[in-house]
Amino acid sequence: KAGVTQTPRYLIKTRGQQVTLSCSPISGHRSVSWYQQTPGQGLQFLFEYFSETQRNKGNFPGRFSGRQFSNSRSEMNVSTLELGDSALYLCASSTLAGLSYEQYFGPGTRLTVT
Amino acid sequence: DQQVKQNSPSLSVQEGRISILNCDYTNSMFDYFLWYKKYPAEGPTFLISISSIKDKNEDGRFTVFLNKSAKHLSLHIVPSQPGDSAVYFCAAPSEYSGGGADGLTFGKGTHLIIQP
Asked: I want to staple A103 with a disulfide (CB 3.0 to 4.6 A). Which of A76, A92, B30, B71 is the partner?
C-alpha cells in the first residue's frame, strides 16, 4: 500500500503571500490530520478532517484553513504568510476515527517564508 | 501549557546497551499513549502504543511502561542499535478531540544518539 504523500516537499514564499499544501492519505483512510513542526514548539495539531468535514481544530489563527475532498485528499491553506509560519507541515492519515489512535505520517512539506 | 513533556532533549547511549526515554503527562484524562520515531527529512513513524488499562506493552526490542499514578511513561530499547538513532516523540490523543483519535498532542521529542 502506498504511504501518505505530500506535495510539494519544499516551498519558499514571501511574507504576505498565501500557500496551499496537498496531502493524499493512505488508500482507505478517511481521516486526515495536519500538524506543524517547529524547533521551538515541536509538533502541534492544526486540524483534522473526516468525510470532508473539519471535526477538530487546534489553537491556530484563522489564516490556517483546510479542506478535504470526496476522495479523502486534503489541502491546507495559509494566507497572509508570516515569518513565523516557516515550519515543516505534516499530514497524517488514519483509518476509522475513534477506533484507532495510530496515525500514519507523510514526509512533510518544508515551508520557508522570507 | 504542555500536556505531554519530554524533559530530555537528547540522550546518548552506547550500542548494545539499554536506551530509556522518558515522558510525563499532566492530563489525567489521557487514556492512550503512543511513541513515534522520526528520522531527518521524514515524517514520524509509529513505533509502539499503550492503553491506560495496561502498565506494560512489549514489541520486540521495544517496551513501553506506564505509571498512571506518577503520570509517567518510558520507552525502553534493548539492545540499542545504530539504526535507532532518531528523534523519539511521546504522544497522547489531543485535548481538542476529547480523547478521540482525531489529533495527537506530542512532546517536544528526545534525540537519541547510539554511539558505536
From this structure: A92
8 Å CB contact between A112 and B112: no
Q: How far apart are CA A44 and CA A112, in angstroms?
A: 17
- State the residue for C-alpha cell 491546507: A76
Q: Yes or no: say if A114 and A22 are a contact pair by the CB < 8 Å rule.
A: no
Q: Would the CA dihedral through B109, B106, A66, A25 be positive or negative? A: positive
CB-based contact B46 A108, cutoff 8 Å: no
Residue B40 preceded by cis peptide, ω within 30: no
Least Cα separation, residue A98 to chain B (angstroms): 5
Task: State the Cα–Cα distance between residues A94 and A100, nearest whole angstrom.
Answer: 7
Q: Averaged over B75-81, what is the pLDDT?
A: 98
Question: Is residue B95 helix, strand or coil?
Answer: helix
Q: Cα separation of B46 and A107, whole Å?
A: 13
Beta bridge partners of B100: none
Q: Is the pLDDT of residue A62 over 70?
A: yes
pLDDT in tens, B27-66: 888 888 999 999 988 899 999 999 989 999 999 999 999 9
Show residues of chain A in contact with B105, CB under 8 Å: 45
Find the length of chain A: 114
Which residue shows C-alpha cell 495496561?
A: B54
pLDDT value of residue B29: 82
Does B96 score more than 80 pLDDT?
no
What is the pLDDT averaged over residues B80-87? Answer: 97
